[in-house]
Amino acid sequence: MPSKGNFIEGNEPVTLPQYMLLNSTRFADLTAMRHKDKGIWQSWTWAEAYLQIRVFSIGLSELGLKPGDKIAIVGQNRPWLYWTFCAAQALGAIPVPVYADSVAEEMVYVLEHAEASMALCQDQEQVDKVLSIGDQLSKLKKIIYDETKGLRDYDHTNLHSIEDVKKLGEVVLEREGDAHWLEGVANGKGDDLAVMLYTSGTTGKPKGVMLSFDNLVISARNANEFDHLDSSEEILAYLPLAWVGDHVFSYAQTYLCGYCVCCPESPDTVEENRREIAPTYFFAPPRVFEVLLTSIIVQMEDAGKIKKKMFDYFMAHANKVGEPILNGESVGFLDRLIYSLGEFFVYGPLKNRMGFTRLKVGYTAGEAIGPEIFKFYRSLGLNLKQLYGQTEASVYISAQPDGEIRADTVGRPSPGVEIEIDDSGEVLYRSPGVFVGYYKDEKATASTKNKEGWVRTGDAGFLDHDGHLKIIDRAKDVGKLEDGSLFAPKYIENKLKFFPNIKEAVAFGDGRNMVCVFLNIDLTSVGNWAERNNISYASYQELAAHPEVYATMESHIEQVNKDLADEELMAGAQIHRFLVLHKELDPDDGELTRTQKVRRSFIAERYDVLIDALYDGSKEQFVETEVVFEDGRKGNISATVNIGDVKTFPATFSQNEAAE
Amino acid sequence: MNAHVNQNSVSAIDNIAKGDVLLQVDNISLSFGGVKAITDISFDIRKGEIRAIIGPNGAGKTSMLNVINGFYHPQEGTISFMGQQRTKMRPYVAASQGISRTFQNVALFSGMSTLDNIMAGRCLKMHKSFFWQIFRHGPALDEEIEHRKVVEDIIEFLEIEHIRKDPVGALPYGLQKRVELARALAAEPILLLLDEPMAGMNLEEKEDMSRFIIEVNEQFGTTIALIEHDMGVVMDLADRVVVLDYGKKIADGKPAEVQADQNVIDAYLGVAH
Amino acid sequence: MELLYNIFIDPFVQMGAMPDFLLQVLWEGFVSGILYALLALGFVLIFKASGVFNFAQGIMVVFSALSLVSLYAAGVPAYIALALAILIMAALAVTIERVVLRHLVNQDDIILFMATIGLSYFLIGFGELIFGGEPKAMITEELGLPTGSTTFDIFDGILILQHIDIAAAVIAAILVAVLAIFFSKTRIGRGLRAVADDHQAALSVGISLNQIWAIVWFASGIVALATGIMWGAKSDVSFALQIVALKALPVLILGGFTSVPGAIVGGLIIGFGEKLFEVYWGGLLGGGVEGWFAYVIALIFLLFRPQGLFGEKIIERV
Amino acid sequence: MFYREAGQYKTNYKDDLATFPILQDRIAIGIYLVIAFVAIPIFGNDFFINSMMIPFLIFTLAAIGLNILTGYTGQLSLGTGAFMGVGAYACYKMTTIFPDINIIILVVLSGVFSAGIGAIFGLPSLRIKGFYLVVTTLAAQFFLEWCFIRIPWLYNYNISGAIEVPQREIMGVIITGASASPTARYLVVLSVVVVMTWIASNIIQGRIGRSWMMIRDMDIAAELMGVRPLQAKLSAFAVSSFYCGVAGAMMVFFWLGAAEVESFDVNQSFRILFMVVLGGLGSLVGCYMGAAFIWMLPIMITIAPSIFGLDINAATVEHINFMMIGGLIIFFLIMEPHGLARLWSLAKQKLRVWPFPY
Lengths: 660, 273, 318, 358
What we know:
The complex is a heterotetramer.
Chain A: H1 16-26, E1 31-37, E2 40-45, H2 46-63, E3 70-74, H3 79-90, E4 94-98, H4 104-114, E5 116-121, H5 124-132, E6 142-145, E7 159-161, H6 162-176, H7 179-186, E8 193-199, E9 207-212, H8 213-226, E10 234-236, H9 244-257, E11 260-263, H10 270-277, E12 281-284, H11 286-301, H12 305-326, H13 333-354, E13 361-364, H14 371-379, E14 384-390, E15 395-399, E16 412-413, E17 418-421, E18 426-430, E19 437-438, H15 442-448, E20 455-463, E21 469-474, E22 479-480, E23 486-487, H16 489-497, E24 502-508, E25 515-521, H17 523-532, H18 540-544, H19 547-565, E26 575-580, H20 600-606, H21 608-616, E27 620-628, E28 634-645, H22 655-659
Chain C: H1 2-17, H2 19-50, H3 57-73, H4 78-99, H5 109-131, E1 149-154, E2 157-162, H6 163-185, H7 187-197, H8 199-204, H9 209-234, H10 241-244, H11 248-255, H12 260-281, H13 290-304
Antiparallel strand pairs in C: 1-2
Helix pairs in contact in C: 2-6, 2-7, 2-9, 2-11, 2-12, 3-4, 3-5, 3-9, 4-9, 6-7, 6-9, 11-12, 11-13, 12-13
Chain D: H1 13-16, H2 23-43, H3 46-72, H4 80-97, H5 103-122, H6 131-150, E1 163-164, E2 168-170, E3 173-176, H7 182-205, H8 207-217, H9 219-224, H10 229-256, E4 258-259, H11 266-279, H12 284-307, H13 314-335, H14 339-353
Antiparallel strand pairs in D: 1-4, 2-3
């Protein structure tokens, strides 16, 4: 049995290591962590996890990790990486998770800015990356690694395996026991700095968001209560460790109520692992749900006629009654009967294939989700909800309470959160989760967070008459066309991206006379369509330039224009011209952020010839672009990109609707 | 979490120091119905090295491997492995002494999964009696699980987790070769014979395979004898090279020496490549 | 002691004591050997050209003979019936090629072998449905085959030779000669050999695999018909023959699957061996040893020479 | 459609190695067992149990035996009938010699005799492969058939040459002989077949089964990996013959009641072979399907015309039956060489990925 902590018995713990201590007794035999490794789900109970963390933490201390030190954590979702959070925090050190796929320059900046003295790397790849930039890291003293493979013959002067560190810890434990360590844990205070998360940021260098234990613990507790989560939950930890969402869901919330975190075998097997685990609480950016839905549609296209008919019939039925049934509204007996048949033949199997059989609550956030996509999942009986959050808020700003789910809002303010809209339309909030500040960046902190604790979100939005928050766009991105009509690029882009054929869209128009867009087609979806129609293509570029693809895109945009024409604020911002880019936007080329958001200004600069062509009326334009291949080599691709024109519609918005 | 392939069972009988002669081939001649495949060949393989056997097509390379692991019985000459001279013996005896191999044309058990193929490599190490097999419980299952763990280490080592339960017949060629290496490794060999491990692979697959071969050699200290066609690959990988041509040895030594050898140059220029 | 005597001495004493009887036994062995050889010949033809081990050869013998007999019974003149029976075998060959073999190209040998077992079952059912299951007499005389016998006085005893047996030997010899000429002199025959050696090579000289298969099946159908007539003349034509026909297997083991002379030598070895063993040693075992003797000979033989009498030593490759 | 695999994850190798790792499969097996052990004895009539279920199960067992040899070890055999015969005659002799020993024990013991004989005839397989091996198994077939006729001791010098089953009981229930009820015999056969299927499945998944499959797939590689061909092949012959022997003994004792050599002739060998081929080489569930198919089909053909009011004589039905089976064998080899079992697993796969096509 793990020894009891000496933080005052009966008192609520205030730090996550204190929670670990508590969990090691109150949830001793419950599974805390699973990891698909060597073919099976290796599992650790809370008691076992605690022992691992304790010895490792003491080892870290022996290795020289001091209170206030920073330890970078680089890699994918692995038990040891999560345990390192706790092990470091137990010593008063501050973990700094780093995106596993960040390139060397990004890593240099983060590690150097955070003044990390140690780095925990998942495997040889990450160790190599850190070693390659070692001479630029003035503070880094030790590298620790989890997976030993390939590292046997490395110079181990400043390189240690987790096993080695644990051995250091074991020696101390044997010699002195854990009293000293426990004391350290007990001395942890709520306003201690817990973690530093570097926001990827659409512009400029990443900023280190400092969160305290109070931030995390209170936000996590509120969230767990909001959705009635308890120790029976199982979640899949597959989002980047450095992202605040994963940190709160897979770490803070877990410690608060003791649910089980499952780490997938590798990023390639997430789908399969999700199917195996069937999480009860699931979080994903809209993209994941989009991709999933696209693959469902694509697969069903290949299904036999009868099966396809059946699928279509039951999906149409679910579309009609699924959501009312989920919301507990009254639905006719016959409809319910057909729905339960559908559950057997279609919905159940679909959920089974997606791994959502046991889902209690699912969240999507980060960006707006397509209403059709949102409805699709909800009509299957999945309690999918939206939330709105930020790193600076320890995630939660607003979330949809059960029974008040609407596709076009992000819900009510979360428990403990106050929301205000300032004169420019920007959303402000104040909450217990509000961050301490940006690390070593007083100026940025001051410009984001005012003296009263109000934080600028940078998003434009409004509270509707039900008190639900509705987000339009990034505040700074909302612009005006020459004629003065409102131009919200993200809003338009999202509408476009709701079509499965469109993977990415970038809209331009601020200060110009009309709105034009760049499109990326979805290779899976369009490729499948091409295959069915015997259209052969050798590359993305070739398919993207196909006239029929252009025709399809044009019809999609027309549909969007029709929608826009219906809306009071947006009717003036219909799309006049478009082109399909000759390459996919790629984070490796800096066109997307690591979280797959488009970097509009970067793209505008990079493809200025194309933008000029859009606005000067050309029918086509030659462009040459430098790209980075997967192995890091650089090359050029060039193409002549066609430009299409789209019909626009007169504004149909009427006063009656506005009065409603 | 970081278990290594268990080498205990092998090291018990393996008392040869690194760098000493592991396998000695003396004056071997082999013929089939009058056709000489190998004529009077001698060389040695030392513990811990990567030894390459190269030569043009039909030089007798594969026959040489077949002699080493007891599949062919030479008419003349002697072979001694770990200091013991061997007489005619069946291949499974060679296997039980610690010689394991892969094949030029992938010889996987096509009706079985990747996992079972690699488990097959463990067959010499599994002994639980028929009685326990009947119940597939208790000792038999324990044994199965114990070896499964070793196999999983190998699967992880060779990065073939994603095809663990796939039937091998449907795998792409490059992966089949990797599974075959995994199967050979599963036997925890003292001497690993690789018959053209990189034949038919693309550049990337070749690089992967080279990496694995080096890692096997370094991590497990396994002595490796490999046949290869591609001179470039051999020169990078091998510690020492023996060159055969028309069943005769024409050179033997370090890669650089061999490369400069006039006989070798002639032999290789004599055949179109 | 007595047992050893019975096994090792007594049979030879008897042979010496009654040489005329021994000759008679040897003749009988020779005749059944010829028939076995003919049976095996049918197998060899097909195996040589297509690598298919045709389990249905036995039923083809029965089927062809029954066609002939039934056609005659239906009022068709004997020689016309013979011609029609040949046509039926041709039709059968084409059908088998079209319906079965064509779809099984590139399959494992064992699959093709199983398919011929299936074919054999089909033909049994089909044959019995059309011709009825009961045994029928062969129309030996009507075909102009001799029926009488000649008795020779020899070694103070007699030797009886059935004329039909002599005819069988002659016909077998003629068939073998014709086949030999066919294989070595005609274009198609050479094509067949090419196919046996290398499918690709055969295709490259412009021979269609499908045609060749149909032709060899037809050729072996004719051999089957000849076998059926001879065998039918000695006993009746019945479906039981089908099982007897399995004896071609041990014959082939001895002679090799691809050798025509091997089939003949193998047939004769089995024929002689079987008769001698049955007559001189069978009594010790209670008789009826003909049923298994051939197989056991083949089995023992295989243990010492797995590649067969004329086969080359197999070099296994990895 | 029925499968809900999400959430069925394995946290240890024991679960991962389970024969039926999917919950729904385990439920299905449970349902089958309940039907077989409870529903059929209660609702099945004597004809159904006696003429359909009992022979079906017995042939299944024989098919498992042959499948172990041919499907799992790759050694083609045409001697199945004779190995069944060895079991039957051995069991018959033992009931005469040891009348007091429980009949079930004797049935199992008779398999041991069969295994021994099988191993002896398996010896040539060390040097002989493929068609050549067919000859040695045919040698076994014909030689053993001859023994069953020519060694009167085997059938207690009965004038008829047949073996007749004495009456035996366990726990007061008559299970063999003329007065045994079909249900009692059925339950005995079912129990034996279920247990032996379980054992076969265990062996196949273990070390020994793997060595068989290694020999089957690539015998040279198997030997180079350290499999002793002698052990592997002989054990396959022995286990295979054991199963055939038990099946043969049960065929006489729990189904026919009396038997002559014809029950064990080469046609029986063919029949079992067809079951294995149609059912699927290398599949246990295929043995059940193949046996059901080959055994039930003729019965259906016999019954079907009378349902439609047609009067077809028995001989014709028999002939059509031959044609159908022959035709089906060819059809399956062309369309699906892996037999019904493959169709089954394809169907199962379809259900697992339902509603997706792949």
